[in-house]
Write a structure and sequence with these properties.
Blueprint (H helix, E strand, L loop, with lengths): L2 H36 L5 H28 L3 H20 L3 H15 L2 H10 L3 H29 L4 E3 L2 E3 L4 H20 L12 H18 L14 H7 L5 H7 L2 H11 L3 H32 L3 H25 L5 H23 L6 H33 L5 H24 L5 H21 L8 H11 L2
Antiparallel strand pairs: 1-2
Helix pairs in contact: 1-2, 1-6, 1-7, 1-13, 2-4, 2-5, 2-16, 3-4, 3-7, 5-16, 6-13, 6-15, 8-9, 8-18, 12-15, 12-16, 12-17, 13-15, 14-15, 14-17
Length: 474
């Protein structure tokens, strides 16, 4: 099997992993509220249950990413992480008490930490100009899972039987269903996932790496940048390391040492553009999860939605977000990532303002209330793909490729912290939407100002441009 076929099959497998993440979220979220009520859990357990998954992912993400950076492999990491997903979902299925349910989400969340290793792998195996499109496609796979998940809920809600000592009903069935899906995925990973090496990226990519290395050798003499050029490598530095002259080998050997990697990671995360992107990651996911936590109690209170109504609502939301991701994939080929980010923030601010005005205190009859709610949700989801894709793509370009797995782990941990705090914030304010939405708007205003002030720095490092100009100059 040739390299390109292996690469495509590996990307398909990654898409399936993210799709299962979306399906799991879609089949559990509409029912966990009632599941907890049946287990006599207090209302704040909803926030705890949603946050527990993110907490363990926050802790495991950087560890999986660091493992990926050192081993340059992800297949073993994925197989291990899937075992945690299988165990966690089986515990959710058992559901003897609210504490077991909480622990089940903690265990399953460990498996979600493998996403940092996957994003690091994708960064190493893609060119900067194609990266945003591939990231958009992978993220769309998760949204496809969110779309397909409610369809599974249509038959899972009909379950009412016993499996040995366990009761299978509409609340416990999502656990055993996801347990089986993750088990099947193990066989898919074993069969069609390869740790393809980035130094065989394309025929066009190989000479580009060599040219990059020549540029790195000459850059200190030319005085193009005061900072170490290798910090901003966007291609495989290991290949350049192997092809370097004997005089340069000690230099590159030092750059791959643990001491250098730690220094590089600590300095990169304090750069202005990295701080802005991490802040955007936090605020986007904080607002998204806060709204998701608010939606189920809100639809139950004002519109009497049950499991079926919530599942259909999430299905329609999935359609919108998938279309949004594919539109952003097309747009990223024509517009810079920072412009896409700016557009997304404008849409998110407009959505939050709408929600404050019309959802803070719903009035005016069922028809108007439902219309205002639908428009608010539509606007919130419209801005999500713009911000999500652009900030991930930019983050992969402004951080070192050598520590990309760890860097993506840190990014996802920041997002994990947001998905912990978001439900906790919203869970206690479902009766006071003005305060909840007001905080969300304040955060969006802050990141919009930060993005505007740092707009000039939200771009690929100059070293890539230098390599390209050197190539065009002969």
């Amino acid at each position: 099997m040739d390299y390109h076929k292996k690469r495509n099959l590996t990307f398909i497998t990654i898409g399936l992993i993210f799709m299962l993440n979306g399906i799991e979220y879609a089949v559990i979220l509409p029912t966990i509220w009632r599941y907890l009520q049946i287990l006599e859990a207090p209302p704040y357990f909803l926030g705890l249950g949603l946050s527990a998954f993110s907490l363990s992912g926050l802790l495991s993400g950087p560890l999986f990413g660091l493992w990926s950076d050192r081993s340059k492999t992800t297949k073993t990491i994925i197989l291990l992480s899937n075992l945690f997903e299988i165990a966690g979902n089986f515990m959710y299925f058992m559901g003897y008490s609210k504490w077991l349910l909480l622990c089940s989400r903690l265990v399953a969340g460990i498996g979600a930490g493998a996403g940092s290793a996957i994003f690091g792998f994708l960064t190493r195996c893609t060119r900067p100009d194609e990266r945003a499109g591939i990231f958009a496609a992978i993220m769309a796979c998760r949204q496809a899972g969110l779309l397909v998940g409610p369809a599974f809920n249509l038959f899972l809600r009909l379950c009412d039987f016993k499996l040995g000592p366990f009761v299978v009903n509409k609340y416990t069935s999502p656990g055993i269903f996801m347990c089986l899906l993750w088990a099947l995925l193990q066989f898919v990973v074993l069969a069609i996932y390869w740790d393809v090496q980035p130094n065989t990226l394309t025929e066009e990519g190989a000479p580009m790496v060599e040219l990059k290395q020549e540029e790195e050798e000459e850059a200190p003499l030319m005085g193009l940048d005061d900072e170490p050029v290798h910090n901003y490598s966007t291609l495989n530095s290991d290949h350049a390391e192997n092809s370097a002259s004997s005089e340069m080998q000690p230099f590159y050997g030092a750059s791959s040492s643990n001491l250098f990697q730690k220094f590089s990671a600590s300095s990169e995360f304090l750069k202005e553009e990295v701080v802005v992107l991490l802040t955007a990651q936090f605020i986007t996911l904080f607002n998204q999860t806060a709204l998701e936590t608010m939606v189920t109690p809100l639809t139950q209170r004002y519109f009497s939605f049950g499991e079926l109504g919530n599942s259909l609502m999430y299905s329609l939301c999935g359609v919108e977000v998938i279309l949004g991701f594919f539109f952003v994939r097309w747009l990223s080929r024509k517009v810079a990532d920072r412009a896409v980010l700016a557009v997304g923030l404008v849409i998110c601010c407009a959505a939050c303002i709408w929600c404050i005005i019309f959802l803070g205190n719903l009035r005016g009859g069922y028809g108007w209330e439902l219309s205002a709610f639908i428009i608010g949700v539509f606007l919130q989801l419209l801005g999500l793909p713009f911000v999500a894709v652009s900030q991930v793509s930019l983050f992969s370009k402004v951080t070192s490729e050598k520590t990309q797995g760890f860097s993506q782990g840190v990014r996802r941990s920041v997002g994990g912290l947001a998905t912990i705090l978001g439900p906790l914030w919203a869970g206690g304010l479902t009766d006071n939407l003005y305060i909840m939405l007001g905080m969300m708007l304040a955060l969006l205003t802050m990141i919009s100002v930060m993005t505007g002030l740092s707009y000039g720095r939200l771009t690929e490092p100059r070293v890539v441009q230098c390599a390209q100009s050197f190539d065009s100059g002969g």
